[in-house]
Amino acid sequence: MFTIHDLRRLARGAAFGVAAVLLAVTAAEGQTADPLPSWNDTAPKAAIVAFVEKVTKEGSADFVPEPERIAVFDNDGTLWVEHPMYTQLAFALDRVKTMAPSHPEWKDMQPFKAVLDGDMKALAAAGEKGLLELIMTTHAGMTNEEFQKIASDWLATARDPRFKRPYTELVYQPMLELLSYLRENGFKTFIVSGGGIEFVRPWSEKIYGIPPEQVVGSSIKTQFVMRDGVPTLFRTPEVNFIDDKVGKPVGINEHIGRRPIAAFGNSDGDLEMLQWTTMAPGARFGLIVRHTDAEREYAYDKDTPFGRLDKALDAAAVNQWTVVDMKADWKQIFPEK
Amino acid sequence: MFTIHDLRRLARGAAFGVAAVLLAVTAAEGQTADPLPSWNDTAPKAAIVAFVEKVTKEGSADFVPEPERIAVFDNDGTLWVEHPMYTQLAFALDRVKTMAPSHPEWKDMQPFKAVLDGDMKALAAAGEKGLLELIMTTHAGMTNEEFQKIASDWLATARDPRFKRPYTELVYQPMLELLSYLRENGFKTFIVSGGGIEFVRPWSEKIYGIPPEQVVGSSIKTQFVMRDGVPTLFRTPEVNFIDDKVGKPVGINEHIGRRPIAAFGNSDGDLEMLQWTTMAPGARFGLIVRHTDAEREYAYDKDTPFGRLDKALDAAAVNQWTVVDMKADWKQIFPEK
């Protein structure tokens, strides 16, 4: 009979053989397999591949050990559509309409009246303060579990008015491929969103392959409360953290505790995240998705309230960040239905 | 010559053979290998093993998929020594002494005078407010990188007065084994410390195998600032988050976004974390380390300012949490020198 020692030796020998064969397969396939099939063979794709190859090549001057291969992604406008308005705002407006029957006073009260009347001009006039009031009314006053269920239920049924598809299908196919490609090369991928952390977490794992513990975002304060002997986390109408602009490096540090080596964004809200990631020693990569495709998606930069791109574009030139021209660089925008 | 297809088939066949052999080795070793050699064969060890076996057994009613196997560990008093005072407090007191030459005014100013005079009674009289002042003075006013270097340098040279060893060697060997055992069984292990997040992160990976992104802790506010064109995160003397008591479930939710299925603590500061983890459907595990070994470590519970254990011990009985009696249940306290 085999002893454990014999089995071990046998296993080790066989494992070595398999490793050699797998290496041969990988090498042979190297020239044909394209990890980024929805990207055209233009400069951004070449820049991404060159970066990944140099940081993963052991012995090279730019080699980065696996635990330090942290990549951060903005969400709105970088991984999924943010026009004609942020999806979370569409959610908040829908929630106001759903909740309105229990709030007759909203008929005469701004900013709720504007939402119920579909009066976008009056809503804009309510400004940031009005927006914050809408968010607090629709996002607080319940437990976290309750909120996540409301958000998930809405995402399961709501449809984007232009594309007639669920919002979670309006994610960018090239970016999904990029997320996978980075992970296959030992990167840990994080979302760093200006949007609400609990709005993204219920679906980030299924859609992006990013688990909840790798989502950083804005948040309102929660309180631990025993309700009828059951521990709950109750959402209170108070801002906890705004994960946007100068907040992004702060959120990254608090959640990740390491400096990323690659950052992907699309707007001025991502400027400081890109600076924090790339303006440091060692191999670094910054990328901006530029919305240039009015036909297949949207075209906007300086003149939009959702995803304004101005200062970050100037900084891209200075810092040699890669700028993706959606129209020219992406073969396909959304996943097949 | 072999085609890729042939190589693939060969690899698959060989891999299958290796898997079978490895399974045989594992099965044969199952009865002899002890994943928790520093634990006596008393109730706590049996409870840990029974829990891990049932949540990892596919097809069993208690099976938990790998991504949901989240385990959270308090640090002070659960993973390393917290007496005669929290290590971070010893660090702060040492820092005050190091910084004193540049602060002649401290000679007549509490709570600094108390520290410089070694007058623990006066220090206690300064209360929480005094303590907070010491922490802010020694932990803020620098960048995060600078702080981490100061903390790391201190930990590299400071020695515990009783055991004459670096503080990072005064970690509990049985808990190190438990961390590894859980990870080998597909758990993701997190630290959830009342102490400062940036005080733990520089060494958590090396000592505990827990990377910085899996450390949750108390924090002060940081600001993103461009200093001479270099992006920095500057530590300001303002509390950001207290990760203790009711704060622990809040911190867990913010950082992890999933409810843990196992929690390990030692004091009343861990009560809510244990409640949040265990008072929910499905298989759950709560454990309290009780300091009962004055000879090999310390013995304390209700009457200590550092790691007071009172309410959480009562709750352990009600909630059927496992209570470790250090003296009876642990063969060894610290790793070998």
Structure description:
- The structure is a homodimer of 337-residue chains.
- With 337 residues, the first copy, chain A, is an alpha/beta fold.
- Chain A has a domain at 36-83 and 166-219 and 240-329: HAD superfamily/HAD-like (Rossmann fold, 3-Layer(aba) Sandwich), CATH 3.40.50.1000.
- Helix content of chain A is 43%, strand content 16%.
- Chain A contains 13 helices and eight strands.
- An eight-stranded mixed sheet of chain A has the order 2-5-4-3-1-6-7-8, sandwiched between helices.
- In chain A, helix 3 crosses helix 6 (127-139), helix 7 (144-157) packs across helix 9 and helix 10 (247-255) crosses helix 11.
- The longest helix of chain A is centred in the first third of the chain and has 26 residues, at 4-29.
- The N and C termini of chain A lie far apart (56 Å).
- At the A-B interface, helix 1, helix 9, strand 4, strand 5 and helix 10 of A face helix 1, helix 9, strand 3, strand 4 and helix 10 of B.
Strand content of chain A: 15-25%
Number of helices of chain A: 13
CATH architecture group name of the domain at 36-83 and 166-219 and 240-329 in chain A? 3-Layer(aba) Sandwich
- The radius of gyration of chain A is 23 Å
The CATH topology of the domain at 36-83 and 166-219 and 240-329 in chain A is Rossmann fold
How would you sum up the global shape of chain A? globular
* Helix and strand run of chain A: HHEHHHHEHHEHEEHEHEHEH
Distance between the termini of chain A: 56 Å
As an assembly, this protein is homodimer
Sheet with most strands: strand arrangement of chain A:
2-5-4-3-1-6-7-8
The main sheet of chain A comes to: 8 strands, mixed
Q: Biggest interface and its residues per chain?
A: A-B, 54 and 54 residues
The chain-level structural class of chain A is alpha/beta
* Low-pLDDT stretches of chain A: 1-25
Question: How helix-rich are the residues of chain A, as a percent range?
Answer: 40-55%
Mean pLDDT of chain A: 92
Q: CATH class of the domain at 36-83 and 166-219 and 240-329 in chain A, please? A: Alpha Beta
CATH superfamily of the domain at 36-83 and 166-219 and 240-329 in chain A: HAD superfamily/HAD-like
Strand tally of chain A is 8
